[in-house]
Design goal:
The complex is a heterotrimer of chains A (503), B (312) and C (111).
Chain A (H helix, E strand, L loop, with lengths): L9 H20 L4 H26 L3 E4 L10 E4 L1 H21 L13 H22 L3 H19 L5 H32 L4 H7 L4 H18 L8 H7 L2 H26 L5 H24 L4 H17 L1 H5 E2 L4 E2 L3 H31 L10 H4 L1 H15 L5 H15 L3 H25 L15 H16 L24
Antiparallel strand pairs in A: 1-2, 3-4
Helix pairs in contact in A: 1-2, 1-4, 2-3, 2-4, 3-4, 3-10, 3-14, 3-19, 4-5, 4-10, 5-6, 5-10, 6-8, 6-9, 7-10, 8-10, 9-10, 9-12, 10-14, 11-12, 11-18, 12-14, 12-18, 14-16, 14-17, 14-19, 16-18, 16-19, 17-18
Chain B lengths: L2 H22 L3 H21 L3 H26 L11 H23 L9 H11 L4 H9 L1 H19 L10 E2 L9 H24 L7 H17 L11 H24 L11 H25 L2 E3 L3
Antiparallel strand pairs in B: 1-2
Chain C lengths: L2 H22 L3 H25 L9 H32 L18
Helix pairs in contact in C: 1-2, 2-3
Classes of the chains: A mainly alpha (503), B mainly alpha (312), C mainly alpha (111).
């Protein structure tokens, strides 16, 4: 069964080519023009992602593009199924809003000559957009390796953008972990190519057999991708890196970048080899996820600085994402099923992206306004920055999982799957996680909404449009739960299946 | 068991020994020297594996450029205090056990693979006639998997920008602080005057011949970069400041040509990155030429490092 | 044992040695060296695959070779970025270490 390029397929090419062209043009046009290029490009990317999503929703079929007219296994295909389209749209929205937010920090036209920070920021942001689109659309495992490296090189300089020694250390550690992850992924692709002479995802899924080489490849690739996704216990690099970066950078790192390698883990196990994980493997991944939730939340509760608290919260939320593996495992057929648990997990990734970006941006505004982000001294900030704290609170509501937020719908789907399969241990873990999240959110919000002895004076005026950007993303995370009324079935569009036929 | 097999065994043992020494030797400088030797030995291994293109790339980039980067780094680190504590024995044993496990799983997977594994070689060679190329690796890089090659250039540029981003704020637009010789010896000056013309010719030849024989943009570009670096290190020319327009254009001319040809393929050949029949080889050679320039500039600037001084 | 298998096993051994160096050596420059060793081991695995996949008449499968060429360039870029970070760290703090005493050893409990 060979693919054919579908009618909307050219959009897939645009999704990758536009940001790449943006990077190239920026290097030539120079630092003063880069923001203009980015502010044309990011909305264009959003439009392309929306059209792809709408096309998928309407037709119920995935979009395919065969690059260069060479059929796989010789050539490379780009494919957009339900998961890709949903994640692409979320990522595009988040990056767009972050772009609006970042204008104040990284105004590239402020100086007569090209300056370092704005130039690097905007080019890397476009690079991240290109890399993420390639991750979501790439249909070949080696193309996905190139995408992973693109993502790493775009993300690492954002961590140490301010040039302080601690952030450079954090960036170096992040780079080393990321490189270890990519090289383990690469050796896995070598073994898979050796066994099946193709790295095309759909062809592999048809040819894959339970064999030593395939098993070793799968384990190595997963370990590598888990290191890049900072799943416990390979999470050491994340908190200093995400907390040390400038606010817009932290937002894009926690919300978007980390989801890239996560998406590849999902593609690998749900797409290429759903029958190979086994009960024990699924439970192991779930256990690591549980460890991340407990560990991340407990450490978050102890944090004295807001940005570190949010970063450890990311560590915990990443654990939640991996709970979908034991919950999607169907013991009868010994396969990972693309059902409610998968939808729940992806919805959780999407709502975490919007909520976490909003929270990091809010923390950035608080830092700019107060001059510090110490949790104990946040008293009165809610009165000084009401929109910001409200957005932060809504983001927290989504992370805790209260209705009607996306987090609520996602956790409901996961709990549903857990109860249906009788895996009560994960129900307990999810409830405990929810409690912990409420705990650290409560700490922050209670401090912020305290009335201090004297009103807080802001160091700098915080522009309303920045607060509005934060609020937009937070409200979006709240409204994601309403997708239950409409496009949630889009996530079920899979290769070879139409929307009418759900597994 | 032919004599060649024993030679191969000897080569492998040498490679493993020198490779291990880069890890276990005390002083960083010795480790880097060992690494350069290791890189050259690896190139020989690749020749034995009948992968000449890879051997050239490994010798040029893996051994040569990486070795140069590491030597520069270790020279600066020599003066720094080295107070990192040694890792405890128990942790080292645990790590050693774990790594041995990984290596043996990998070895097992390789040994257990069947004698005749599936291959794409026939498909590659069959379709090569459509591209007009004679070098199958070039066919894979620029025709079948052109998207990967094109995006990998963007990866290279992002890495370069990342290196540049490490400059202090006021040194942006300045000149890379590549360590140059204060008073280059007469030998170095002589070499830097004599070698580059030869090197440039070899580099251009390497790029040109890559369509039909082993070689290509990466190998040619690396040789050109090496020549340029030689000239800079010997103080015959200054490193360019990173804001120079011609530098920026040089960096992107390769990927932009690639992208333009790819988009033209939408109209002329029915698919992005497709080639119209009959023109494939000409287009690919054009891409390779511009890519050689871009790779040469990018590799030189990557080795030169972040800007240090203000542009004068 | 054919020559391809010999080099493949060499690659596997290099992966183990490089991984060990990456995990246990506390200095960042030695970690970068170890990463390069690890990478070259992985490339040799590709080389084994390429040689083994030689059908009649062809010396090897060009697809893995092309992948290795791409990966060599990417690894060089990674090394350049990592070294630039180490040197910047050195300039700023006078020392080139990763701050905590723990090396990249957290993944030893996994497999």
């Amino acid at each position: 069964m060979s693919d054919a390029t579908t009618s909307g397929g050219i959009l897939l090419v645009l999704a990758i080519v536009l940001p790449a062209a943006g990077v190239l043009l920026s290097l030539v046009a120079g630092g003063r023009q880069v923001e203009r290029i980015a502010l044309i490009l990011l909305p264009s990317n959003l439009i392309v992602a929306s059209v792809i999503f709408a096309d998928l929703w309407r037709s119920g079929r995935q979009l395919v593009y065969i690059v260069g007219d060479w059929q796989p296994p010789l050539g490379i295909t780009l494919r957009a199924d339900g998961l890709s389209a949903a994640m692409m749209l979320t990522t595009a929205v988040v990056i767009c809003v972050i772009g609006m937010f970042a204008h104040a920090d990284f105004d590239s036209r402020a100086q007569p000559l090209e300056t370092r920070e704005p130039f690097v920021f905007w080019v890397m942001l476009m690079g991240i957009g290109c890399a993420m689109n390639l991750i979501f659309l790439g249909g070949d495992l080696f193309t996905l390796y190139v995408a992973l490296e693109l993502l790493t090189f775009a993300a690492v300089p954002l961590v140490c953008l301010d040039g302080r020694a601690e952030t450079i250390q954090a960036a170096l550690r992040y780079l080393l972990f990321a490189l270890l992850g990519s090289i383990l992924y690469l050796v896995g692709t070598a073994l898979l190519y050796g066994s099946y002479a193709t790295l095309d995802i759909v062809l592999l899924s048809q040819r894959v057999r339970m064999e030593t080489a395939t098993l070793v490849a799968a384990v190595l690739m997963t370990v590598g991708l888990l290191a890049k996704t900072a799943l416990f216990p390979l999470h050491l690099w994340l908190p200093p890196a995400h907390a040390g970066a400038p606010a817009s950078a932290s937002a894009v790192l926690s919300a978007v970048v980390v989801k890239g390698s996560f998406f590849l883990v999902v593609r690998l196990w749900f797409g290429v080899m759903p029958g190979m994980l086994g009960f024990a493997g699924a439970q192991l991944i779930g256990a690591l996820g549980a460890g991340a939730i407990i560990f991340g939340s407990v450490v978050a509760l102890q944090q004295k600085r807001l940005k570190l608290l949010i970063a450890y919260s990311t560590v915990a939320q990443i654990g939640y994402l991996f709970l979908m593996f034991p919950l999607a495992f169907d013991p009868v057929s010994a396969q990972l099923k693309s059902g409610g648990a998968l939808t729940g997990g992806m919805l959780l990734a999407m709502s975490h992206a919007t909520a976490k970006a909003a929270m990091f941006m809010a923390a950035g505004l608080i830092y700019a306004g107060l001059g510090h982000d110490r949790v104990a001294e946040l008293g009165g900030v809610a009165r000084a920055l009401p929109m910001t704290m409200f957005a932060f609170a809504i983001g927290g509501v989504c992370l805790i999982g209260l209705p009607p937020s996306g987090g609520f719908l996602a956790k409901w789907l996961l709990l549903d799957a857990a109860v249906a399969s009788g895996q009560w241990q994960w129900v307990l873990v999810m409830l405990a996680g929810g409690l912990f999240t409420s705990g650290y959110m409560f700490i922050v919000l209670s401090r912020a909404y305290q009335s201090p002895s004297e009103p807080v004076k802001l160091r700098v005026a915080v522009p309303k449009y920045r607060e509005a950007a934060v609020l937009t993303l937070a409200v979006l995370s709240l409204l994601l739960g309403l997708v239950a009324l409409g496009p949630v079935d889009v996530l079920q569009v899979r290769p070879g299946a139409t929307m009418a036929v759900l597994r | 068991m032919t004599i060649l097999f024993f030679a191969d065994v000897g080569l492998v043992l040498l490679v493993l020994a020198i490779g291990a020494s880069t890890i276990f030797v005390r002083k960083a400088f010795d480790a880097v020297i060992a690494f350069v030797v290791y890189g050259l030995l690896l190139a020989i291994v690749w020749v034995r594996l009948s992968a000449i293109d890879v051997a050239l790339t490994e010798a040029a980039i893996g051994g040569g450029m990486t070795g140069m980067l590491l030597l520069g780094a270790v020279a600066r680190l020599r003066s720094a205090e080295l107070d990192s504590p040694r890792i405890g024995l128990r942790v080292r044993l645990a790590a050693g056990f774990f790594c041995a496990l990984v290596a043996s799983c990998l070895a097992g997977a390789l040994l257990l693979s069947p004698k005749a594994i599936p291959t794409l070689a026939p498909a590659v060679m069959e379709n090569l006639v459509h591209t007009g190329l004679g070098n199958p690796v070039a066919g894979v890089l620029f025709a079948y998997r052109a998207l990967d090659t094109m995006l990998e250039k963007v990866v290279l540029l992002l890495a370069l920008l990342g290196v540049w981003s490490l400059a202090p704020n006021d040194a942006w637009n300045g000149i890379p602080g590549l360590r140059v010789y204060e008073r280059p010896s007469s030998t170095l000056t002589f070499l830097a005057q004599v070698l580059p013309p030869v090197g440039i010719v070899v580099g251009i030849y390497m790029c040109w011949v890559g369509a039909n024989e082993p070689g290509g943009a990466f190998q040619g570009g690396t040789i050109l970069a090496a020549m340029w670096l030689l000239v800079i290190v010997a103080r015959l020319e200054r490193a360019p400041s990173i804001g120079q327009p011609w530098l920026r254009i040089g960096l992107v001319v390769g990927p932009i040509t690639f992208l333009a040809v790819g988009l033209a393929g939408l109209v002329l050949a029915n698919a992005f990155l497709g080639y119209p029949p009959g023109y494939a080889k000409a287009l690919i050679v054009a891409i390779e030429v511009t890519l050689t320039i871009s790779i040469a500039v990018a590799l030189t600037m990557l080795a030169a490092g972040p800007p240090k001084q203000e542009q004068q | 044992m054919s020559d391809a298998t010999l080099f493949g096993l060499c690659g596997a051994a290099l992966v183990g040695i490089g991984l060990y160096g990456l995990i246990t050596n506390p200095e960042p420059l030695r970690k970068i060296l170890a990463f390069n060793l690890l990478g070259s081991g992985v490339f040799l695995v590709f080389g084994f695959i390429s040689r083994r996949a030689a059908a009649d008449g062809f010396p090897g499968d060009p697809v893995p070779q092309a992948m290795v060429i791409t990966a060599i360039v990417v690894a060089f870029a990674a090394t350049a970025l990592a070294i630039a970070l180490v040197q910047r760290l050195l300039e700023q703090t006078g020392r080139a270490t990763l701050s905590s005493d723990e090396p990249v050893s957290a993944d030893k409990s996994n497999s």
